[in-house]
Design brief:
This protein is an alpha+beta fold. Helices cover about 20% and strands about 35% of the residues. Bound molecules: flavin mononucleotide.
Length: about 200
């Protein structure tokens, strides 16, 4: 079948996007508001966008009233955020942080997670996460009803036991990804394919 995007609702398009573009990695993002309260929420519209400098991006869909989410607002104001990797050990707590808590209530506390100071930026990272990336905002772009945030990763915090020869061991990290609806996925079977070389 062919479906015209402009002939159905935004929610119908959303369902086709999240059901087709999956599994999606999840950024667990901490920010701080004007009062210094730590805000935390997961975002699966997330990926790498560059390696020199290292850059990541994620997108916050605006609220029904058109206002940016607390995460986007805090980043645009302060210019800083931390992206954490979601894994099998912290997924339940991180899922809890997606609660629509009012401004000024820290989702970290509600979820029983611990904020610890970052090294290079003011926004704290979360102790229970094995990988955290300290980011400075490069650009925020208003895209329709979403705010796209692009950040430069200025520092990596990685649990010692994950690293071997500068590479992260995926079996020790045990990342969790997002599917459609309320579903998540674990890493399944892993297989390798060499990239072909074109020879004249
Ligand atoms: C696994 C997961 C992934 C999510 N991904 C997104 C996303 O990519 N974009 C978005 O706007 N909201 C996403 N959400 C919803 C936000 O986490 C939720 O709206 C949260 O309350 C936003 O917090 P804030 O208002 O403190 O920024 C996701 C929720 C979950 C549980």
């Amino acid at each position: 079948m062919h479906i015209r995007a402009d002939a159905q609702t935004a929610h119908d398009n959303y369902k086709l996007l999240i059901g087709s573009i999956l599994p999606r990695p999840i950024a667990f993002v901490t920010t701080v508001n004007e009062e210094g309260v730590v805000n935390a929420a997961p975002f699966s519209f997330f990926n790498i966008v560059g390696d020199e400098p290292p850059m990541v991006m994620f997108s916050c869909i605006r609220k029904g009233n058109g206002e940016p989410k607390h995460t986007a607002r805090n980043i645009i104001r302060s210019g800083e955020f931390v992206v954490h990797v979601v894994d099998e050990d912290n997924i339940a707590a991180i899922n809890h942080t997606s609660i629509n808590a009012p401004d000024g209530i820290s989702e970290l506390e509600l979820a029983g997670l611990t904020a610890v100071p970052s090294e290079q930026i003011k926004v704290p990272r979360v102790q229970e996460c094995k990988v955290a990336m300290e980011c400075r905002l490069v650009q925020s772009i208003e895209l329709g009803s979403s705010d796209l945030l692009i950040g430069e990763v200025v520092g990596f915090h990685i649990a010692d036991e994950l690293i071997h020869g500068g590479r992260i061991d995926v079996k020790k990290l045990k990342p969790v990804s997002r599917l459609a609806g309320s579903s998540y996925a674990l890493i399944g079977e892993i297989f390798d394919l060499e990239r072909p070389l074109y020879e004249e």
